[in-house]
Every structure is written in structure tokens, then in C-alpha cells.
Amino acid sequence: MAEPQQKKNKLTLDAQVKISTLYDTILILDFGSQYSHLITRRIREAGVYCELLPCTQKIKDLDFVPKGIILSGSPYSITDQDAPHVDPAIFELNIPILGICYGLQEICYVFGNNSTELARKSEYGFAKLEINDLAEIPHANALFESVEKSTQVWMSHGDHLDTIPEGFRVIATTESSAYAAIVSETRPVYAIQFHPEVTHSIEGKTVLRNFAINICACSANWTMDSFIDKEIERIRAIVGETGSVVGAVSGGVDSTVAAVLMKRAIGDRFHAVLVDNGVMRLNECEQVKETLGSQLGINLRVVDASDIFLGKLKGVTDPEKKRKIIGNTFIEVFETESHKIDEECKNSGAGKIEFLLQGTLYPDVIESISFKGPSATIKSHHNVGGLLEDMRLNLIEPLRELFKDEVRALGTLLGISDELVWRHPFPGPGIAIRILGEVTPDQVRIARHADYIYIEEIKKAGLYRKISQAFAALLPVRSVGVMGDMRTYEQVIALRAVETTDFMTADWFEFPASVLKRISSRIINEVEGVNRIVYDVSSKPPSTIEWE
Ligand SMILES: Nc1ncnc2c1ncn2[C@@H]1O[C@H](COP(=O)(O)OP(=O)(O)OP(=O)(O)O)[C@@H](O)[C@H]1O
Ligand SMILES: O=c1[nH]c(=O)c2[nH+]cn([C@@H]3O[C@H](COP(=O)(O)O)[C@@H](O)[C@H]3O)c2[nH]1
Ligand SMILES: NC(=O)CC[C@H](N)C(=O)O
Ligand SMILES: [Mg+2]
């Protein structure tokens, strides 16, 4: 393990003890396919650690030695002028390589001396893959081991290979592709035209597992169980004997899991801070403090900054302005609190705070290194990243390599209750972005109360785990109603509930009508200021999950 004291280099600090040096690792090179992250998911599901890097990655700059490499698909055509090409050095590593779709075309291009014959002939959707046995080439059949000889796969390509390079043999065909899968005669280089990473390819998982475990000889030891110990050791090595860490903890699953790991690693030298920004859910701050303390032994400081936040939000109606105000104020409050902690702990024997814990997940990392470049800003998601510049703290991100479902599995292993682990995500700017228009104390009261009833009824109906995220939004319009023979002129609550796996796309949830009826009646009866409930039936895209 490396000595922590020498590592003062902000941001790169976490990289000093890379997970890829602790596990057998498959490298996935991303050529910009919309499915690249799915390849990563499937390899991880097979129990093998893998990392996704842009296809422009130079092998000499890699800080680990992969056991195998996968080349992803791509929106490009291999013959385009500006088509991306892989560093030829990957073929000199003498490790197994698998090309998928564009990856296949790239392999043919490289082995065809940087040229290949392509025709435009698209194949999109299901196809029947017929597998050939090639008994004379010992490694040829390993990719399709235990796969039915005739199996359904998913195709998505417009370019069609007319020939394959010398030294390659066909191991599978479809009706339209004579080269649906090929292999080098002399080395473990495989290429397939179909997409094994999508669930429509029925035996796709087996193909990827065969590649990672049988062909690359990776150990299937990527389990959250093994991760805990390694990660705790890694954190200790980074923080050292006396270093202290501060972390913003919201009660959401990411920051809670990160906090529990940190607490296990360094005990009381970890300081968890929850900022009450005045727009948290009803009773949330007290509940989170209670649960983290009693269940997980984390001493959470709750900083009540609600007056500061609500003061700054006064008169503001623009969604982006709200987000910026909350993000900036958060930084100020957090910074003040860290200084206070340093003061309070100066005689404790622990060192000053040098590190900031963040709950960054792998999808955020993938997005930021994407070959396609950053996507257009739809909304400025609040995060604590801005703290870094001002605070000169080193960043520790124990979940940086994990997907959300891995974080949840980790949480369960760490003894965190199902209630916390399966909590719906809650955005940093909280209900301020669920109150359309100005955020006033009275609007906060209405939105909070309605949301509380909504979630309570969802839980009572046993639907909480079926729904990925649900919340109530308060609309800035009033409508006419009649209650107890009297005219009312009050506000509207919009209920939102979505199902999604990655929060990038989402579908609205189909409630049983009886549940909606009960929710509607309770909110109208119990929340003063509301006389109408509507249900949001928009998917993402074209809508987003939050209303602002
Ligand atoms: N009120 C808060 N007090 C302290 N930290 C916060 C607060 N709200 C958000 N954060 C910080 O911002 C980060 C990003 O928020 P985000 O909502 O994405 O993650 P989370 O709250 O940990 O989990 P989830 O996505 O399940 O809500 C959190 O991990 C946490 O570090
Ligand atoms: O921590 C966060 N800070 C934010 O500023 C923020 N904005 C949206 N979200 C959450 O992101 C997911 C996708 O939301 P959208 O479809 O509205 O963009 C959903 O889960 C949203 O709740 C946020 N989370
Ligand atoms: N999905 C892909 O990788 C497609 C590769 C290439 N653009 C084609 O159309 O064939
Ligand atoms: Mg949250």
C-alpha cells in the first residue's frame, strides 16, 4: 500500500491505489455506442471487475494491466474520414480481445492493413445466430461454450462486412450476416456483429461471461463482500493514521453507504454533516440523524441553515437560479462548518480535515470521460463538487467505480436497513425544485405535507419498491373547487411516480386507481391550500423526472 502522506495531489489522490490493480480487470474501450455502459454492467454481473475508457486511450498511459479488452459499438462507420480507431498497441499486449459490432469492423480494419470492404446493408432487430463448430482451432469454440447452436441475438448495424481479413475464420452466421462472429486462427481475438450486452440477445450474458472468465481467465471475485475489506484498506492507506475526513451526508443511499464505509475505516476521524436547507422532506433531518446515529453509529451534525436558504430563495422563480442559489449556499454553509469542526477537534489528537468524502457513482464518471463528450446541460444538477476549489480538500470517492445497484448491495452488506437502502433518490435542491414558482415557507409546508401523505400511501399499498422515484410537485396555479358547499380557489398538486433503472429514461408508473383515489382524497382533505390533484403521465424523454 502506498504512503498517504506523500499524496497531496488533489483529484488524482484516489487513483493512487486503483481498484483495477486489486482485481482482475477487463478494459472496455468506448467508441460512443449507446450500449457501452451495458457491456460494463454485464461483465460486472458476471463477477468480473471492468472499466470503461474512451477508445482514444493510449495503452502506454494505462495505469493497470487488463486481462482482456472489449471494443464497443459506435455510431461511426469505420470508413468515415473521422472514424475513431483504437491504439494499435492493444494488439501487441497479447491478451484476448473481443470486438462488438463497430468493434468487429475495427478488428477487420486493423487486421486488413487499415482498410476494409463495407457495404450498406442494415440489419436491425432480432436475428437467428447459427454457431459453427471449429474443432481444428482449439480456442475457437470458447466464446460460445454452453450456448445453444441456434440462438436469438440482437443486431443494430448499417454497415456490412463483405470480406474478413486473412487468418480469421467464421464461428457464427445469421441469415443476413455471413460474418456474424469471427475468430483469429492463431490468437484469442474474437469479433461479433450482434450486441451481447442487450437483453434481447438471449445468451448474450453467457457470451460475455465466457469471454471474461474462460477466455481472459479472470477470477469472478468482484463481489461487494470482497470490495468492503479492500476499500476500507484503501481508505486507510489514503487518509493515514491521523488524517480527518468531512463528508456531506444527506440520508440518501449514496452518501449513507459512503459514510458507513468511512466510519468503518477511520472511526471518529470522520465527520458527517447534513445541511438542513429548509427544503428537505417532512421531518427528514431529525429522522436521518436518528437513523444514522442509532443504526449505524454515525454521529451526524445537522446544521440548520434553513433561514439562510429560504432567505436567499425569496422572490426567485427561475429553476436554474434556484438550483444555483442552493448549490452556492450549500458550499458556504459546509465550509463554515468544516472550519468549526477543525476548531473543535484541534486538541483531539486527530489531524486537521484534509479530505472530503463524496458519494460519486460510476455513471457520473462515465459521463465525464465519455468519448462523445459532455451532453447538453438540461439542468444544473446540484453537487458538492464546487467545494473542492475553495476548500483545497482532497477528494475521496469510495463509490466512484460502482453502479447504483452495486451501492445498494453494498449498503445491505454493511448492515444498512432496507428502508435506507431502497430509499427513492432525493435531489440536493430538494423540494425547492418541486415547488414551481416562488419558494415561501407556506409553499414548503404544502409541498412537504402532500409529499408525505403520497409516500405514506405508496408504502401502505406495498408499491414503494416497485416505483423508482415518487414525489409531489406543487403547481403555481389555482383552480376552483367546492368544499362543504363553499367555493374554494386553491392550488394544484401534481403527483409523479416513475419506473426506471438508470434515471436517464423513465416511464410513468401505472397506479391501481384505488390507490390514486385514496391519495387524492387524503391530500385534499388534510393539506390546507390544495383542492385539486393531477397525475403526471409523461415519460422521460421528452419530459424529465423533476418538474424543474
Ligand atoms: N442536505 C444535504 N446535506 C448534506 N449533503 C447533501 C445534502 N443534499 C445533498 N448532499 C450531498 O450531495 C450529494 C449528491 O446528492 P444525491 O442526491 O445525488 O446523493 P444522495 O443524496 O447521497 O443519494 P440519492 O441519490 O439516493 O438521493 C450527496 O451524496 C451528499 O453528499
Ligand atoms: O442530487 C441531485 N441534484 C440535483 O440537482 C438533481 N436534479 C435532479 N436530480 C435527480 O436526478 C434524476 C434525474 O432527474 P431529471 O430527469 O429531472 O433530470 C432524478 O432522480 C432527480 O431527482 C438531482 N439530483
Ligand atoms: N452498433 C454499431 O456499432 C454500428 C456500427 C456501424 N456504425 C454500423 O452501422 O454498422
Ligand atoms: Mg439525495
UniProtKB/TrEMBL annotation:
Pathway membership of this protein? Purine metabolism; GMP biosynthesis; GMP from XMP (L-Gln route): step 1/1
- Please state the Enzyme Commission number of this protein: 6.3.5.2
Annotated Gene Ontology cellular component terms? cytosol
GMPS ATP-PPase domain span: 222-423
What catalytic reaction does the record list? XMP + L-glutamine + ATP + H2O = GMP + L-glutamate + AMP + diphosphate + 2 H(+)
**Annotated HAMAP family:** GMP_synthase
Q: What does this protein do?
A: Catalyzes the conversion of xanthine monophosphate (XMP) to GMP in the presence of glutamine and ATP through an adenyl-XMP intermediate.
The name on file for this protein is: GMP synthase [glutamine-hydrolyzing]
- The organism is Smittium simulii
